[in-house]
Amino acid sequence: MTGLQIAVVAGAFIVAGMAKGAVGMGLPPVALALMSFSVPLADILAMMVVPTIATNVWQAVAGHGLARLGRRFASMAVAAIVALLLVAAAFGKLGTPKATAWVGIILAVYAALALTAWRPRVPRAVERWANPLAGIASGAVAGVTGVAAVPFLPYMQSLEIDRNDLVQALGIMFVAITGALTLALALQGSFTPANVAGGFGALVPTFLGVWIGQRVRRAISPETFRRAFLIGMLAIGLQMASRLL
Predict the structure, then answer these.
(1) CA 99 to CA 241: how far, in whole Å?
(2) In 3-state terms, what secondary structure has residue 159?
(3) Second label for 108, Cα 20 to 30 Å away, from 97, 138, 178, 235?
(4) Tens of pLDDT along the chain (245 residues)?
(5) In the chain, where are the structural domains located?
(6) What's the predicted TM-score (pTM) here?
């Protein structure tokens, strides 16, 4: 890689890490969008694996609610893993640009609506049956598209949960879904020692960005966090939807 490409990669992972630390999501699409102008797509995808897994684990364990939130969302995580692996095995190959783009459209429409006066809410009382259903649906979509987003992110945003618990719960779910995606990709022969090793160089700028993003999240109000979360979801959706162009 040239010096310019190294600088672009470092800057992209810092910004993507900030999004991850602030709202609990956005690392892969933000980094991909920023690097796509100067780094080949194959290199980008290879570098994503290690930072994505590492930041999801950190996000899941950072905080005081790991055991409590783990119990609350265990049925969703297990359902998502099983559905993802079954669907990925049935389809044989994860992700197509068109399928991913349609997921982006759904995310963008949901986020745009939620930024209005509309306030979707899922009562805590219905989570017992809604969580596994959301897990099955999210795992099935991820098994086709390779993207952990729909209906998982809109569903989580609609729960009765405070912002710090939401970010930690997202981390727990991302560990489960991303872990299953990684296993499915490995079974399909997508990884080599060389492209996995390429992601380790991105860890330092990524975690620097996450640290900055976490400090920002603690400094803002709950309503500002909610709007930032939805704006982030909208931006991610639009970036994914751009593949239809």
Answers:
(1) 9
(2) strand
(3) 178
(4) 677 778 888 898 999 899 888 888 878 778 877 877 777 765 676 678 889 899 999 999 988 899 999 999 999 999 999 999 999 888 877 666 677 777 788 888 888 877 887 777 889 999 999 999 999 999 998 888 777 778 888 899 889 898 889 999 999 999 999 899 888 878 877 777 766 777 898 999 999 999 999 898 888 887 888 888 888 888 888 887 887 76
(5) 3-244
(6) 0.83
